[in-house]
Amino acid sequence: MEELQDAIEDAQYLSAVSSVEDGPRPVLPWQIPTDEELSSWKQSIRSKTLTAPLPFTLEWTLARALGLFLFSAYVKSIGEYVDMNFLEEVARWKMARGRLRADITGRIVEGYLTGVPLSSMAEEGGEDAANNATADNVNGDASTNNMGKTTPPKSEINEYDLAMLIPSKFTSEDISKMKSESYDASTNKSAVGICGPVLEKINKKVDQLRNTPGFGSFKLPANRDSISSTFKSSLGSSTTSDIGDIGDIAASVDKSETTSEGGGGGATAASNRRNLSIMTNTLPEDMFDEAVVIIVEIMKEKHWKGFLESEQYTKLLNFLWFRDRTVVEEDFFLMRVLGRGGFGLVTACKKGTSGKLYAMKIMNKKRIKIKKSEQLTLNEQICLADVKSPFVVELAYSFHSQDDVFLILDLMTGGDLSFHLCQKGLFSKKECLYYGARIMLGLQALHDKGYVYRDLKPENCLLSEDGRVKLTDLGLAVKVTPNLHGAAGTRGYWAPEMLKRDKNGKRMSYNHMVDWFSFGCMLAEFISGINPFRSEKALEFGLAKKPSMTQASDASEKDKKKDDRKRQKEKAIDCATLEMHPEFDSKFFSEEAADICKLLIDKEPTTRLGANGCSEIMSHEYFAEVNWEEIISDRKRPPFIPPRDVNAASQSEIGTFSEDKQFHQTVLDEKDESYYKNWDYTSDKAYAAEVIEFLIYERETGKPLLPMNMDSECCCTII
């Protein structure tokens, strides 16, 4: 019967994963607040927010992805869209870097802030631009209004995380003056009415971009979907703010010789493209701020009152109220067990209201107490909530019950890299570069927040259904401190400084450089299929330095010495880590591959590659073929797409936990509960993505998305 039940759960899981592209399939209605509940919630929001933007203003609304989406939906529903599309493009510009920012700069300047008609854009961009110019226009074409100016085509938001933080540095007097001097609805100088000193400033700033070598042959994409699809490719798009300054250096380390889209080829085209990206990134971050403030003020006068009386505003309040309610276990429906950790199971699940699939990590409080791991458990939750990166699994929710604590994470259906490495033996060069690049940026995202990962290994690198890899299991991640010491993680991936002791026999302290050593071990494993410090040569080396015990003659003695031999094997691996300098077989390693691995597994952390940040590793010749802008912006297509299958062990192999005598005798008290007083968490980004995905599906189908089963009388669809 258990095998039958497992088969049923496997089938349900595969069906749910396979149907993701068909749209969300909710099974619970969204609960809506009573008037009293909504009033109380609004008052609590006002009391908590004393800084700008003040709650429930237009600026506050636009600063939230869900608010921007619903305000945009309202404005476009009444036939107004040009100003709104302008704000959306600037929001994309703020998020982008490199070539993508260059694309959006061209779209904003040519489409919204000059009187240049779209036909001129097509001439500059080429025939494809002319063909694509109307792809997003609901009416079919760009139009010329009765004032004689060309307006760009209408588009809709397709991203899940687009928001606009309105600059607060301008006073009301500043805004009034800018409006009087630089806004004229009847002007033909720009599609949004910006003119005068503000437009002149923008034109001066963009002149340097126009004079960049290669700009004349650079295609300005007229189809906004060419940009928005890069954000829609995963839950929450990548932004350079997620990974520190990596976006700013990507163009300088991008050594690819990719042909430019606008013409030309080889090294010249690639050089022009890099120059354009670098030049675009030198444009000031406040380049469009004055224009944005003016347009927001115009939209406030024209549309804010109507929005407050609209169904979109009602939806916004209801959805935000629902976000702030306490999340409970019953909000999720369990599917298939995917794995087992130290304190509980990891199970695929579905969020009832949105139909979004997640992974639920369940950790039993008693098991945590038995192993005295409360702080490690808290560390994982804090780190996951703190680090926002497309290269690290995202924490959507955390909550706890009387017996368990829960982490709701990205569902990575493609399995871990250890599973696929075992299947393949070793990875291809393209796979090594792609996985290595993303893992490297995931580590840097942790380091930028002050954390050291300490548990990098193929088992902790998960693939999504489309082949994107992310780091997971942050249970050993901690903040770097001057006295951080002690081995943590898995033998063979430990850095030497984790094992070293001072003259008094005390463990030496270490920092984030241990992660780059682990990265070197894992990169070598990707290339050859073998971890250099867990190989037969490493064991032979270590055992030669630490001779094994004399072999026992009878079977019973051998059994008694089993644990001793295991410990000796572990000591041999440690010895190899401390003293052995691996050789890299030319059968598997090119000169560049061997060199980068040697530099990464340098015994001395101060000279190890990565000591000055991951830009050192990005610049190494081994990664010369990588287009870093594509990796960082999450646009790079993965080299391997895992099969749509259960990429995990069978549920019988995963097993369950035996509740032994110690478990039953363990009692939780108030002190134990105090560890989890701040455990509850909801990610604004993940929640907004859930709802926006839901709303996009409604927009595309033209009808409300109702749950498959509506039994509850206290809930209804948000309208």
Automatic annotation (TrEMBL):
ATP binds at K361. Residues 286-317 form the RGS domain. One of its GO terms (molecular function) is protein serine/threonine kinase activity. PROSITE patterns: AGC_KINASE_CTER, PROTEIN_KINASE_ATP, PROTEIN_KINASE_DOM, PROTEIN_KINASE_ST, RGS. Residues 123-155 are annotated as: Disordered. Residues 332-623 form the Protein kinase domain. Keywords: ATP-binding, Kinase, Nucleotide-binding, Serine/threonine-protein kinase, Transferase. Residues 143-153 have a biased composition (Polar residues). Residues 128-142 have a biased composition (Low complexity). Residues 624-691 form the AGC-kinase C-terminal domain. It comes from the Eukaryota. This is G protein-coupled receptor kinase. It comes from Cyclotella atomus.
